[in-house]
Amino acid sequence: MNNTRPRKRPRKADTNNERDAQKHKKSRYLTADELPWKTVARSNAAGVGENEGMLLLEEIDGVDVVYEGSGEGKVVRFNMTKEPVMAEAGDGSGSEEWNGIDETTLQADPEALDAPAESHSPLPDNPTASPSDVESDFDVEQLPEWQPFGLHPLLLKSLHAQNFTTPTPIQSAALPQAILGKDVVGVAQTGSGKTLAYGLPILNALLQQTANSPPSSQRDLKALILAPTRELALQVSSHLNACLTPIVNNIPAAITATQDPKKGKGKDSEPVPHKAPPRISIAAVVGGMSAQKQRRILERGVDILVATPGRLWDLIGEKDSLAQQIRNLQFLVLDEADRMVQGGHFEELDNILRLTLRQNADEIADEMEVAREEEEPQVLESEPILDSSSKPLQTFVFSATLSKDLQRDLKKGSRHRRKCGKTSTLDDLLYRLDFRDPSPQIIDLSPEGGLVSTLTESKLECVATDKDFYLYYFLMRYPGRSLVFVSSIDGIRRLVPLLELLKLKAYPLHSQLEQKQRLKNLDRFKSAPNGVLLATDVASRGLDIPAVDHVIHYQIPRSADTYVHRNGRTARAMNSGFALVICGPEDRRIFRAILSDLGRQEADVSDMVVDHDMLDKLKHGVTLARQIDSVQHKIKKDNHDRNWIKETAEALEVDYESEAEQIDAAASNRKDYRLMALKAELRELLTRPLLARGVSAKYITSGSKSIADSLLLGNHHETMLGLDKPRANEEVAPGSARRTKRRQSKSK
Ligand SMILES: Nc1ncnc2c1ncn2[C@@H]1O[C@H](COP(=O)(O)OP(=O)(O)OP(=O)(O)O)[C@@H](O)[C@H]1O
Question: What is the pTM of this model?
Answer without folding.
Answer: 0.72
